[in-house]
Amino acid sequence: xKFLSAAKYxxxxxxxxxxxxxxxxxxxxxxxASLSGCALDYELHPDTDGEKVTMKIKVSEGLVPPxxxxxxxxxxxxxxxEGPDVFGNIREQRVAFKRRGEGNFYDADFAVDGGGMxxxxxxxxxxxxxxxxPERIGEGAVVGTGGDVLVVFQHNNPDFPSEGVKNVxxxxxxxxxxxxxxxxxVLKKDYxxxxxxxxxxxxxxxxxxPQVRNINAEAVLHAKYVVTSKQPEFKSIGxxxxxxxxxxxxxxxxxxxxxxxxxxxxxxxxxxxx
Length: 274
Description:
The chain is α/β, with parallel strands linked by helices. It has helices at residues 3-8, 17-36, 134-137, 260-272; strands spanning 52-59, 63-64, 68-73, 86-87, 90-95, 98-99, 105-111, 113-115, 120-128, 130-131, 142-143, 148-152, 165-167, 172-186, 192-198, 205-208, 214-221, 227-230, 242-244. The chain has a domain at 3-177 and 203-217. Strands 1, 6, 7, 11, 14, 15, 17, 18 and 19 form a nine-stranded mixed sheet that branches.
Protein backbone atom coordinates (compact mmCIF):
# COMPACT_ATOMS: atom_id res chain seq x y z
CA UNK A 1 0.00 0.00 0.00
CA LYS A 2 1.59 3.25 -1.11
CA PHE A 3 1.56 6.25 1.20
CA LEU A 4 -1.15 7.97 -0.80
CA SER A 5 -3.53 5.11 -0.08
CA ALA A 6 -2.26 4.95 3.51
CA ALA A 7 -3.33 8.56 3.91
CA LYS A 8 -6.65 7.98 2.17
CA TYR A 9 -7.59 5.04 4.34
CA UNK A 10 -7.49 7.34 7.37
CA UNK A 11 -10.36 9.28 5.84
CA UNK A 12 -14.00 8.40 5.44
CA UNK A 13 -16.45 9.39 2.77
CA UNK A 14 -19.01 10.67 5.26
CA UNK A 15 -19.11 14.47 5.79
CA UNK A 16 -18.42 15.90 9.22
CA UNK A 17 -21.78 17.41 10.20
CA UNK A 18 -20.38 19.47 13.05
CA UNK A 19 -18.03 21.27 10.68
CA UNK A 20 -20.43 21.56 7.75
CA UNK A 21 -21.66 25.01 8.75
CA UNK A 22 -18.15 26.30 9.21
CA UNK A 23 -17.07 24.75 5.88
CA UNK A 24 -20.00 26.45 4.15
CA UNK A 25 -18.83 29.74 5.60
CA UNK A 26 -15.29 29.03 4.44
CA UNK A 27 -16.47 28.24 0.94
CA UNK A 28 -18.40 31.51 0.78
CA UNK A 29 -15.33 33.35 2.06
CA UNK A 30 -13.22 31.56 -0.54
CA UNK A 31 -15.54 32.67 -3.34
CA UNK A 32 -15.51 36.23 -2.04
CA ALA A 33 -11.72 36.16 -1.72
CA SER A 34 -11.35 34.84 -5.26
CA LEU A 35 -13.54 37.59 -6.64
CA SER A 36 -11.71 40.25 -4.64
CA GLY A 37 -8.26 38.96 -5.58
CA CYS A 38 -7.36 37.91 -2.04
CA ALA A 39 -5.79 34.56 -1.15
CA LEU A 40 -6.78 32.47 1.84
CA ASP A 41 -4.13 30.64 3.84
CA TYR A 42 -4.62 26.87 4.00
CA GLU A 43 -1.01 26.21 4.96
CA LEU A 44 0.27 24.48 8.07
CA HIS A 45 1.46 26.79 10.82
CA PRO A 46 2.64 24.38 13.54
CA ASP A 47 2.73 25.65 17.08
CA THR A 48 6.44 25.28 17.82
CA ASP A 49 5.93 26.17 21.48
CA GLY A 50 2.99 23.83 22.02
CA GLU A 51 2.55 20.11 22.57
CA LYS A 52 4.94 17.90 20.60
CA VAL A 53 5.48 14.28 19.65
CA THR A 54 9.11 13.29 20.26
CA MET A 55 10.80 10.57 18.23
CA LYS A 56 13.93 8.59 19.07
CA ILE A 57 15.20 5.85 16.81
CA LYS A 58 18.18 3.54 17.14
CA VAL A 59 19.42 1.81 14.01
CA SER A 60 21.94 -0.96 13.50
CA GLU A 61 24.88 -0.58 11.11
CA GLY A 62 23.76 -0.49 7.51
CA LEU A 63 20.46 1.30 8.17
CA VAL A 64 19.53 4.96 8.02
CA PRO A 65 16.20 6.73 8.72
CA PRO A 66 14.92 8.90 5.84
CA UNK A 67 12.76 11.96 6.58
CA UNK A 68 9.44 10.95 8.08
CA UNK A 69 6.04 11.98 6.72
CA UNK A 70 3.76 13.73 9.22
CA UNK A 71 0.11 14.09 8.23
CA UNK A 72 -2.30 16.66 9.66
CA UNK A 73 -6.08 16.35 9.50
CA UNK A 74 -8.63 19.17 9.27
CA UNK A 75 -12.33 18.73 9.96
CA UNK A 76 -12.94 22.19 8.56
CA UNK A 77 -11.11 22.43 5.25
CA UNK A 78 -12.25 19.18 3.63
CA UNK A 79 -12.01 19.42 -0.16
CA UNK A 80 -11.37 23.16 -0.01
CA UNK A 81 -7.72 23.09 -0.99
CA GLU A 82 -5.77 20.63 -3.10
CA GLY A 83 -2.02 20.60 -3.58
CA PRO A 84 0.97 18.32 -4.09
CA ASP A 85 1.05 17.32 -0.42
CA VAL A 86 -2.68 17.37 0.31
CA PHE A 87 -4.90 14.28 0.13
CA GLY A 88 -8.50 15.41 0.63
CA ASN A 89 -8.41 16.87 4.13
CA ILE A 90 -4.94 15.53 4.97
CA ARG A 91 -1.93 17.82 4.68
CA GLU A 92 1.54 16.36 4.86
CA GLN A 93 4.99 17.65 5.74
CA ARG A 94 8.42 16.04 5.85
CA VAL A 95 10.51 16.09 9.01
CA ALA A 96 14.15 15.01 9.01
CA PHE A 97 15.84 13.09 11.80
CA LYS A 98 18.94 14.56 13.41
CA ARG A 99 21.81 12.23 14.20
CA ARG A 100 23.31 12.32 17.69
CA GLY A 101 27.02 12.81 17.13
CA GLU A 102 28.61 9.89 15.30
CA GLY A 103 26.44 7.24 16.93
CA ASN A 104 23.46 5.25 15.73
CA PHE A 105 20.77 7.29 17.50
CA TYR A 106 18.51 9.79 15.72
CA ASP A 107 16.01 12.30 17.13
CA ALA A 108 13.11 14.34 15.79
CA ASP A 109 9.91 15.99 16.95
CA PHE A 110 6.84 17.59 15.46
CA ALA A 111 3.94 19.69 16.67
CA VAL A 112 0.58 18.18 17.58
CA ASP A 113 -1.24 21.39 16.66
CA GLY A 114 -0.74 22.20 12.97
CA GLY A 115 -2.35 25.62 13.40
CA GLY A 116 -3.59 27.72 10.54
CA MET A 117 -7.06 28.71 9.46
CA UNK A 118 -7.96 25.04 8.97
CA UNK A 119 -7.03 24.12 12.54
CA UNK A 120 -4.82 21.25 11.41
CA UNK A 121 -4.26 18.50 13.98
CA UNK A 122 -1.69 15.71 13.74
CA UNK A 123 -3.20 12.54 12.28
CA UNK A 124 -0.28 10.18 11.66
CA UNK A 125 3.44 9.78 11.25
CA UNK A 126 5.07 7.36 8.85
CA UNK A 127 8.75 6.67 9.50
CA UNK A 128 11.21 3.88 8.99
CA UNK A 129 14.63 2.83 7.81
CA UNK A 130 16.38 2.16 4.51
CA UNK A 131 19.53 0.23 3.61
CA UNK A 132 22.45 2.65 3.69
CA UNK A 133 24.75 0.64 1.42
CA PRO A 134 22.63 -1.83 -0.61
CA GLU A 135 25.57 -2.63 -2.88
CA ARG A 136 27.43 -4.18 0.08
CA ILE A 137 24.77 -6.88 0.36
CA GLY A 138 24.14 -7.37 -3.34
CA GLU A 139 26.40 -6.17 -6.11
CA GLY A 140 24.63 -3.49 -8.11
CA ALA A 141 21.60 -3.51 -5.80
CA VAL A 142 19.48 -0.40 -5.26
CA VAL A 143 17.22 0.54 -2.35
CA GLY A 144 13.83 -1.13 -2.53
CA THR A 145 10.84 -1.22 -0.19
CA GLY A 146 10.12 -2.18 3.42
CA GLY A 147 11.23 -0.92 6.81
CA ASP A 148 8.26 1.40 7.46
CA VAL A 149 6.03 2.00 10.49
CA LEU A 150 2.74 3.91 10.56
CA VAL A 151 1.47 5.45 13.81
CA VAL A 152 -2.08 6.83 13.61
CA PHE A 153 -3.17 9.45 16.13
CA GLN A 154 -6.62 10.14 14.68
CA HIS A 155 -8.71 9.37 11.61
CA ASN A 156 -12.21 10.02 10.29
CA ASN A 157 -12.70 6.78 8.40
CA PRO A 158 -15.56 4.63 9.74
CA ASP A 159 -14.06 1.71 7.80
CA PHE A 160 -10.61 2.07 9.37
CA PRO A 161 -9.20 -1.48 9.36
CA SER A 162 -8.77 -3.25 12.68
CA GLU A 163 -6.97 -6.34 11.40
CA GLY A 164 -3.24 -6.05 11.86
CA VAL A 165 -3.51 -2.76 13.75
CA LYS A 166 -2.01 -2.63 17.24
CA ASN A 167 -3.90 -0.44 19.72
CA VAL A 168 -1.75 1.57 22.09
CA UNK A 169 -2.91 2.95 25.45
CA UNK A 170 -0.97 5.73 27.10
CA UNK A 171 1.55 8.32 25.99
CA UNK A 172 4.59 6.09 25.30
CA UNK A 173 5.19 3.70 22.44
CA UNK A 174 8.25 1.41 22.29
CA UNK A 175 8.95 -0.42 19.02
CA UNK A 176 11.67 -2.90 18.16
CA UNK A 177 11.73 -4.39 14.68
CA UNK A 178 13.92 -7.07 13.14
CA UNK A 179 14.59 -6.76 9.42
CA UNK A 180 16.07 -9.19 6.92
CA UNK A 181 17.58 -8.22 3.56
CA UNK A 182 15.69 -9.47 0.52
CA UNK A 183 17.54 -9.31 -2.79
CA UNK A 184 14.87 -9.26 -5.44
CA UNK A 185 15.64 -9.64 -9.13
CA VAL A 186 13.22 -7.47 -11.08
CA LEU A 187 12.83 -8.15 -14.78
CA LYS A 188 11.86 -4.89 -16.42
CA LYS A 189 13.03 -3.20 -19.59
CA ASP A 190 16.35 -2.94 -17.81
CA TYR A 191 17.26 -5.62 -15.29
CA UNK A 192 17.47 -4.29 -11.72
CA UNK A 193 18.21 -5.87 -8.35
CA UNK A 194 16.39 -4.32 -5.40
CA UNK A 195 17.31 -4.68 -1.75
CA UNK A 196 14.06 -4.80 0.21
CA UNK A 197 13.64 -5.13 3.96
CA UNK A 198 11.46 -7.97 5.27
CA UNK A 199 9.74 -7.19 8.56
CA UNK A 200 6.99 -8.62 10.72
CA UNK A 201 4.15 -6.87 8.88
CA UNK A 202 3.38 -6.25 5.20
CA UNK A 203 3.50 -3.55 3.97
CA UNK A 204 4.32 -2.03 7.38
CA UNK A 205 3.39 -2.16 11.03
CA UNK A 206 0.43 0.03 11.99
CA UNK A 207 -0.37 1.39 15.44
CA UNK A 208 -3.48 3.26 16.57
CA UNK A 209 -2.16 5.51 19.32
CA PRO A 210 -4.36 8.56 20.05
CA GLN A 211 -2.52 9.67 23.18
CA VAL A 212 1.07 8.75 22.30
CA ARG A 213 3.53 11.62 22.52
CA ASN A 214 6.82 9.73 22.91
CA ILE A 215 7.95 7.13 20.36
CA ASN A 216 11.11 5.10 20.91
CA ALA A 217 12.01 2.79 18.04
CA GLU A 218 14.84 0.38 17.32
CA ALA A 219 15.52 -1.18 13.92
CA VAL A 220 17.84 -4.19 13.73
CA LEU A 221 19.20 -5.40 10.41
CA HIS A 222 20.28 -9.07 10.30
CA ALA A 223 22.54 -8.54 7.33
CA LYS A 224 23.96 -12.09 7.30
CA TYR A 225 20.55 -13.67 6.71
CA VAL A 226 19.76 -12.77 3.13
CA VAL A 227 16.78 -14.15 1.23
CA THR A 228 16.82 -13.98 -2.57
CA SER A 229 14.17 -14.27 -5.25
CA LYS A 230 13.76 -14.12 -8.99
CA GLN A 231 10.70 -12.71 -10.61
CA PRO A 232 8.87 -15.27 -12.79
CA GLU A 233 9.54 -14.77 -16.47
CA PHE A 234 5.81 -14.68 -17.14
CA LYS A 235 3.42 -13.10 -14.65
CA SER A 236 0.01 -14.65 -14.10
CA ILE A 237 -2.41 -15.41 -11.28
CA GLY A 238 -1.05 -18.02 -8.90
CA UNK A 239 2.57 -17.70 -10.03
CA UNK A 240 4.87 -16.29 -7.34
CA UNK A 241 8.60 -15.64 -6.98
CA UNK A 242 10.90 -18.50 -5.98
CA UNK A 243 12.47 -17.65 -2.62
CA UNK A 244 15.83 -19.03 -1.51
CA UNK A 245 16.32 -18.68 2.24
CA UNK A 246 19.63 -18.21 4.08
CA UNK A 247 19.86 -21.92 4.98
CA UNK A 248 19.45 -22.97 1.35
CA UNK A 249 15.80 -24.03 1.60
CA UNK A 250 13.18 -22.69 -0.80
CA UNK A 251 9.53 -21.64 -0.57
CA UNK A 252 6.79 -20.78 0.06
CA UNK A 253 5.29 -20.74 -3.41
CA UNK A 254 2.01 -19.09 -2.43
CA UNK A 255 3.20 -15.60 -1.53
CA UNK A 256 4.76 -12.55 -3.18
CA UNK A 257 6.92 -11.81 -0.13
CA UNK A 258 9.34 -13.92 1.94
CA UNK A 259 8.03 -15.51 5.12
CA UNK A 260 9.16 -13.52 8.18
CA UNK A 261 8.64 -16.35 10.74
CA UNK A 262 10.80 -18.63 8.57
CA UNK A 263 13.61 -16.08 8.57
CA UNK A 264 13.31 -15.62 12.33
CA UNK A 265 13.46 -19.39 12.90
CA UNK A 266 16.55 -19.77 10.69
CA UNK A 267 18.39 -17.00 12.55
CA UNK A 268 17.43 -18.18 16.04
CA UNK A 269 18.43 -21.77 15.23
CA UNK A 270 21.80 -20.62 13.88
CA UNK A 271 22.45 -18.46 16.93
CA UNK A 272 21.50 -21.30 19.30
CA UNK A 273 23.98 -23.64 17.59
CA UNK A 274 26.95 -21.33 17.90
